[in-house]
Specification:
The protein is an alpha/beta fold. It folds into 3 domains: 135 residues, 3-Layer(aba) Sandwich (Rossmann fold); 184 residues, Alpha-Beta Complex (inorganic pyrophosphatase (n-terminal core)), CATH 3.90.1640.10; 125 residues, Diaminopimelate Epimerase, Chain A, domain 1, CATH 3.10.310.40. The chain contains 17 helices and 19 strands. The protein has a 7-stranded mixed beta sheet, sandwiched between helices. Helix 9 packs across helix 11. The longest helix has 21 residues. The two termini are 38 Å apart. Pfam families: DHH. This is DDH domain-containing protein. InterPro entries: DDH_dom (IPR001667), DHH_sf (IPR038763), Oligoribo/pAp-PDE_c-di-AMP_PDE (IPR051319).
């Protein structure tokens, strides 16, 4: 039993429904009620579910007894799917759930048309009631995410609302996904930029991100790690403590979609979903579950966050990203979105790109370039993006010097090794970095690089980077 994963408890008298639900829910421990007495329902439920889940997930018992539910109290969160044709039995069991599992969320499925069984949230949003007809009109997984998000919204509010001043901390060079997520969390908490500022240890550098700040009137404050002690609460958005080169003095919440890179069991609130394409998707689900109005400015930011981190929905997306995108699209400002996506590039970028392309080192399917010292860090990933377009390339790595660090941007085609995993093996704990399957970033202190790999001669750097990726990526 893994109570930290949460419990997904199915109580229904329809074998097909039970089978469908256990196929969908993958993130929580699944338990399916089976009548203790032998009979047709017991046999049908076992036959429908036993090929999809372990036998111990089929729980025999009497659901009319309080003891059946009290045994699950250690789980957090708990989602109970309740669907029974016997109305009296349904009502009695529902009362037992409310009494014995006071923190549980309930998804009640009832027979009837939407007009006969209108969608509604009851008991302080603990229970979502909807008809079978409406359920079939959109995936069950969306309803389950809504239930889970309702629980998470209450939890993160309870943890963060206790602070008068809250820091929303992003990575050193904040991107659209992080910026949008911070703006969304601030809206979810009902805060303003004075009491809940967006902060970073670096600064926004990429032109499209600077355009986002300007067009959406966002303010990002640069602070030092020690400054976090001036805040009552600290929430990390689109990043994790291990992504930083320093130890953070305090962290109260993490909301991120990158692969988990540390043990965060001591952090009060942690919602890391590596299957999601963007943290903005997670925050969109929070806002929908909490019935928070998403205005044009916030909708534009969130949709841009999703587009930017998923390359226009072409990379690492799941149905949740698509639903969030579709729900936000009608409310965005299209003109602002276009201006953020296509910011002007300075002419001085042209010789940088030309130098990178003429100095590439190539081995098998790996392309490596070094563009020297740059005044803007965003030039490095832009070159890497461009390099991956060459025929036969599967890996593109661009390195450059920015503010006494050797910064490496990594891109791949998606069907090779995970870029984030490869970078983690390369940095091996002495530098910082991470990423996803198809894109990653590493930051090496210049002095540390020279100690391990020699001088900063361009040819030496390219050869070193190429050898590192031949060893770890092929």
């Amino acid at each position: 039993m893994d109570s930290k994963r949460g419990l997904f408890l199915v109580i229904c008298d329809d074998p097909e429904l039970a089978s469908t639900l256990v196929h969908i829910q993958k993130n929580m421990d699944i338990k399916v009620w089976v009548p203790s007495k032998c009979g047709q329902l017991q046999t049908s439920l076992i036959d429908a579910c036993e090929d999809s889940i372990h036998k111990e997930a089929l729980v025999k018992g009497d659901v009319t007894k309080a003891s059946f539910f009290s045994q699950w109290k250690e789980y957090k969160p708990i989602c109970v799917v309740l669907s029974l044709k016997d109305i009296e039995k349904y009502s009695n069991i529902r009362e037992l759930i409310l009494t014995e599992l006071p923190d549980a969320r309930i998804l009640s499925l009832q027979i009837g048309r939407p007009e006969e069984v209108p969608r509604k949230l009851i008991d302080n949003d603990r229970e979502l009631v909807l008809s079978w007809t409406e359920l079939l009109s959109r995936p069950i997984s969306a309803e389950l995410r809504h239930i889970e998000s309702s629980h998470r919204v209450k939890e993160v509010r309870d943890i963060l609302d206790g602070g008068d001043k809250i820091a929303l901390l992003l990575q050193p060079d904040p991107d659209p996904d992080g910026l949008a997520s911070a703006l969304a969390l601030r809206a979810l908490l009902g805060r303003n930029k004075v009491s809940t500022p967006i902060v970073t240890f670096g600064k926004v550098t990429r032109p499209e991100n600077l355009a986002m700040l300007r067009l959406l009137d966002l303010e990002v404050i640069t602070i030092k790690p020690d400054d976090l002690s001036n805040f009552d609460k600290v929430a990390l958005l689109d990043t994790q403590p291990t992504h930083f080169t320093v130890t953070l003095p305090k962290v109260d919440a993490i909301i991120d979609h990158h692969p988990m890179t540390g043990n965060y069991s001591d952090i009060p609130y942690c919602d890391i979903r590596s299957k999601y394409g963007a943290t903005s998707t997670i925050l969109t689900e929070y806002l929908r579950a909490a019935a928070v109005n998403i205005g044009q400015r916030l909708a534009t930011a969130l949709l841009y966050g999703i587009k930017a981190d998923t390359l226009h929905l072409n990379r690492e997306v799941i149905d949740a990203d698509l639903y969030a995108f579709i729900s936000l699209y009608p409310d965005i400002n299209y003109n602002l979105l276009r201006r953020m996506e296509k910011p002007e590039l300075p002419m001085r970028f042209a010789p940088v790109l030309a130098h990178a392309l003429t100095s590439m080192a190539v081995k098998e399917s790996i392309l490596v370039s070094y563009i020297g010292e740059v005044e803007r860090e965003d030039l490095i990933p832009q070159v890497a993006d461009f390099m991956l377009q060459f025929e036969g390339s599967e890996w593109a790595v661009c390195a450059g010097i920015y503010e006494n660090n050797l910064v490496m941007s990594v891109r791949n085609v998606g069907y090779v090794k995970n870029a984030g995993d490869v970078v983690k093996r390369i940095i091996n704990g002495w530098a910082s970095g991470g990423g996803h399957r198809t894109m990653a970033k590493a930051i090496f202190p210049v002095e540390g690089w020279k100690e391990r790999y020699g001088n900063l001669n361009p040819e030496n750097i390219k050869a070193t980077v190429l050898n590192l990726f031949i060893k770890e990526a092929l």
